[in-house]
Amino acid sequence: MKNVIKNLLSVTVALGLVVIITTACTKGSSSVKQNHSTQYKEKSYSVNANKVNQISLSYRDRNVELVRSTDNAVHITYFQNDKESYEINVSDENKLKMKAITNKRLKDYIGLDADKAHRYVKIAVPSGITSGIDIKTSNGDIDLSEVNISGAVDATTSNGKIKVSNVAVDKNLKMESKNDDIILSSVGIKGTFDATTSNGNIEVTKVAVKDTLKLSTTNGDITGIIKGAYDAFSISSHTSKGKNNLPENKINGDKTLDVSTNNGDINLEFVN
């Protein structure tokens, strides 16, 4: 009887080990398949700039960089996999649209930080491009550098910085961020320049406008250097719970400077 019980126990243990090993192998195989399906591949898209009069880019959880291309084409570099891809097309009205498409489930967002290197889109445009450019993202930064744009530019993000350096825009430049800073350096705008953020600072270095400069933030400071003579600007400024080195109202200027902050300081200087 003891031998029978011993044999039954041996068989039970053996069967248990088989189940455990089989389950582990199945999970391992499933994990390999999942990892394979989520591997990112670098992709690119190009179109002649003369065939486009508006560029609209809409993302989520992406850093976006706008730079100058070396030819007369618009080039977009991005990464995608089986769960995250992009829809890119040029409409009959010559509007280039790029929209992020995702079929991720909640569990797929675990370990999101590991994908940071691939959560990036780079757009290169030729110097003097006449197209309007509209960039929208969230949980990511927007970086514009070394570009001259004849059209208008609109950049919006939340939970991310906006950085603009060595950029010239012939029409209007508008940017909005939430929960982070807007940093501007060597920027020249012929139209209206409107920068707004909340829970972040606005820092300007040698920013020049021919028309209007609007800077507004909540829970942040506005500081830096504006390119141009003090007497060239009509000024309207307001701050609550902060210091302000500008007059609240100043008239007799060919250009307009409108600055406001809540729970922050204003400290701007002028240089020719």
From TrEMBL:
InterPro entries: Toastrack_DUF4097. It comes from the Bacteria. Residues 131-268 form the DUF4097 domain. It holds the Pfam family DUF4097. This is DUF4097 domain-containing protein. It comes from Peribacillus simplex.
